[in-house]
Design a protein that fits this description.
The chain is an alpha+beta fold and 238 residues long. It has two domains: 110 residues, Beta Polymerase, domain 2; 113 residues. The chain has eight helices and six strands. A six-stranded mixed beta sheet has the order 3-4-5-2-1-6. Strand 3 and strand 4 form a beta hairpin. The protein starts with 11 loop residues before the first strand and ends with a helix.
Length: 238
Amino acid sequence: MIADGLNKFEDVICLLGLGSLYETDRLDDYSDLDFFLIVKNGCKDKFIKDLSWLSNIPVTYLFKNTPDGYKFFYEDGIYGEFAVFSEEEISKAHYNKGKIFYLKEGYDPILLKTENEPKPKTVYIDYNMNEALTNIYVGLTRLKRGEVSSATTFIQTYAYNNILEIIDTIFPKEEGFKDLYVNERRIEFRHSNIFQILSNMKQGYLKNKESAGFIIDFINENLSPNIFIINQIKKLLD
């Protein structure tokens, strides 16, 4: 619907769909509209200030979350996020591949090819394991002091995320979309039996010791941790 009216704007070059607007087989009732509007050099501010190009459907929520764009809701409940880039900026932007929904006549789409696609992160199991162990140790010392919020962050966010990054290397992967920016996206699709494991690693604000204990058990069962730090952590768990 956005693309349909863009030919009225002389300075618009392209509407580029991202995420599930690129891999449309992933589109479902919970998908967002993520896209870039690419405009001629020198015209960016005009399209950020005047959003008449966004559609003829009323926009009922608008939040300018970056200098480049907005998050928004249409009246019909569809949620979206977009950024506006000039020709020069898009050539330097970092983003996954996109799908062209509108391209100005006579414009070569090869000029939209990004040289800055994200590369898969190299994961080092030993590094992540030891980061998780030290996260848990520090978190448990914070818990002993009564700093429950900080403990929760160290154990159920920092340590959890470090373990999450190595799940794909521990267990066989099933086919499923992997987001190169956010590792946990669709991890349940890649590992159909992971739910119970992950839920036990994040048991909530009042169960930091239980969450830490489960992560330690998981590490002991699947990896080769240093026994000294394991024992230091177990002292804090007792």
